[in-house]
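Standup, Tuesday
Yesterday: got the pipeline producing structure tokens again.
Today: sanity-check two examples.
Blockers: none.

Example 1:
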Amino acid sequence: MNLRKQNKKQLIPSWLMIIASFSLAVAFFLPYVTATDAGRNLLGASEINVSLLGMIKIHRDLAATPPYELVGTIVLVLIGLIALFTVLSLLFSLLKKPLPTLIFAVLNFAVFSVLKWDLTDRRVIPSGLYNWGFSCYYLYIGSVLLFAGAIWLLVVKRKAKKKLKEQEEL
């Protein structure tokens, strides 16, 4: 197999990884929580659709309030880890490195699962004011797509390496 055919086989999984990791970064700007109908009447316009970046502001203010310092700090750390793992996934996707991308996709999935569990367990979301927004669900979909692309590229690279080794032996 020549190098051109090998690169063509790697093209689709590479692009899948890049697009999925970039869309995870874009998900930071999409609504993570959305106000319910009852909440729309009580909340201001800026509080109807709150992205993960908006959640940072809310929990930064919460971390400054004495009885809620720990809760606010924990959520800020979780959102920071999601951002870090998303950027690292994007970086390794661009470098076409499937194994590190896979690791950071799994870590990202785990951290935002913990964040969602925390907000649900404390009955913050869903509540009378808020329900989950598009970004909350997309983080799962994007992570699965990133995971699939990384596995696919890993398999394609392993097969190409095995085939190259067999050709060298001949």
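Example 2:
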Amino acid sequence: MNRQDKIIQLELAGDFAGAEKRARKWTVDEPGEMWSWLMLAETLMFQNRMDESLEAMERPTGEDRHHPMFYRLVVLAGLRAKAFTAAHGGLFAARVAGLPEAILSDLETAVTKQGLLSLEGAFPDTENPDERWRTLLPPMWHRQKQAVRLSWGAVGDLVWVFHTDFLDLSIRFQRGEKATAWKLFPAAYEFVNERNAGASRLPLHRRKPQPQMLQCWSALRIAASLHLFGAFPDMSAPNTMRFNSQYEWLEVGSRHEGSYAVFNSTGLASGVQDILSRIPEPSVSLEGPDDRIAEAFPWLSHSLADDVMQRLGICTVAR
């Protein structure tokens, strides 16, 4: 019997002191082994020693922080510690990381029973303010200084989402204006320049405008925000999530180090806009309808991956 199985056996027998002793010895013998720290964190969690459990969970680094079983423990420990946002982030990340469906289902049940945000914008209890719970997760789940402003607008039968502050600039590029148009939009310039730091020695206003610069970087925050209310997506394709509501759906995905969001109805877009407005500390806001998206879309659509456009039935040659 290996070390992990022995610790689990002791936990099942209720011998948490014995499990802790074995887990601590494992961390001393193999401090670089992720499982040694996860097992220590787990047995401390079962003893409701949540600060110590959190400290153990902070020890894995690098790729170990993206392991689906690491995220599983963030969910379970986060719920016990009333770190509800972190628990949601762990479930969200575990789904993307490929945690087996049976384990995901159990975690969904736990989060649904213990950690959903109500439509009035309140968790079941006061949320744990310790920021270290969120920093166990990817940056999207860290506390944000301000909400990113996104807009939605219809283009044909679909409803697309893009950054509100990029739309007027994108329209200028769609009309054929040169890179000097950047100077008229300092907020967009600063955001994109920081995002693309190191990508080129040339300043943005001297580089040929590329649609990828203005793609919807923050669409995944919509999916994360809906998750807080218990809207758990299906992974319909690699790096692609679908939220289904009868005949309506929202698809959110990531491609080319950016992300995208598209609805199949304005009604659902409007409903999601209302739901996002109820979050006490939003990471993203949604506004619409915005007619500027239809005008900017022929240019902005080139930031979208061909597999996305083809699956949605949009010709990639004519766009």
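Quick observation on example 2: The chain has a mean pLDDT of 91. The chain has 13 helices and seven strands.
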